[in-house]
Design a protein that fits this description.
Immunoglobulin-like, 35% strand, 4-stranded antiparallel β-sheet, 2 domains, 3 helices, alpha+beta, 234 residues, single chain, globular, 5-stranded antiparallel β-sheet
Length: 234
């Protein structure tokens, strides 16, 4: 009976640790922008990754709002088969001076709408590419996103980053670094682990596996202790 208790306790510990450490993989399933960093004043291609979080509905539309107080002069969209992309522009109160002259209008919103049969189905994701620049001289560029499902539900990923707090519906955020800092940054060492796409899923899975290993190790230790105790009393 003692052995059975030890086995059950070890299995329970392993399951609890693995479940607790694997939880971030579920919580991280939100709209993200990749890469997560870029250089101020430069041009970059960003990818909005949109996972479907519903089991009974498909994602049929994505709306991305670009900050109008930190406008970007050039915005180009990569075509996606089965999706229609439309960009909206606004007039600037203060025109932007560029090498080609003054820019009086900038893109303020991009909307992708799925054609019939092209929606993001449950347990799937889609990526939407945008080329933009020059990026503003600021620490971060926050995109507010609206994800609409076939059920009519709209999830608003609009919570801006706040120090010491985890947002329930975080907005995709691109961190911007000055050119000097970006050029002086050390290169990644050879053999470094590849980027997991910025949504934290790879790290969360790794933690879950590590938790399972620790739990199984606890089970082994418990069995050895039981055997020693049994040997002493025999």
């Amino acid at each position: 009976m003692r052995l059975a208790h030890v086995v059950r306790a070890g299995v329970a510990v392993a399951a609890a640790v693995a479940a607790a450490l694997a939880f971030p993989a579920v919580a991280s399933a939100h709209v993200t922008v990749n890469p997560s960093t870029a250089t101020q004043g430069g041009y970059t291609k960003v990818t909005f990754r949109v996972p479907n979080e519903r089991d009974d509905a498909s994602t049929v539309k994505l709306e991305i709002a670009l900050p109008t107080d930190k406008p970007v002069a050039s915005v180009s969209l990569k075509p996606i088969q089965g999706w229609t992309a439309v960009s909206e522009s606004i007039k600037l109160a203060t025109p932007i001076k560029t090498a080609d002259g003054e820019l009086v209008e900038v893109v303020s919103k991009i909307t992708w709408t799925a054609d019939a049969g092209s929606a993001i189905k449950p347990h799937q994701f889609q990526e939407f590419d945008v080329s933009m620049g020059p990026l503003p001289q600021t620490d971060q560029f926050v995109f507010k996103a609206l994800q609409t499902y076939s059920s009519g539900e709209t999830v608003r990923w609009i919570d801006e980053p706040a120090a010491g707090a985890e947002a329930e519906h975080p907005a995709p955020t691109l961190k911007l670094t000055p050119k000097a800092a970006a050029s002086g940054a050390p290169a990644a060492p050879a053999g470094a682990a590849p980027d997991d796409g910025g949504d934290g899923t790879g790290a969360a899975v790794g933690l879950g596996v590590a938790g399972l290993v620790l739990g199984l190790a606890g089970l082994v230790v418990g069995l050895l202790a039981y055997r020693r105790a049994a040997a002493r009393t025999s």
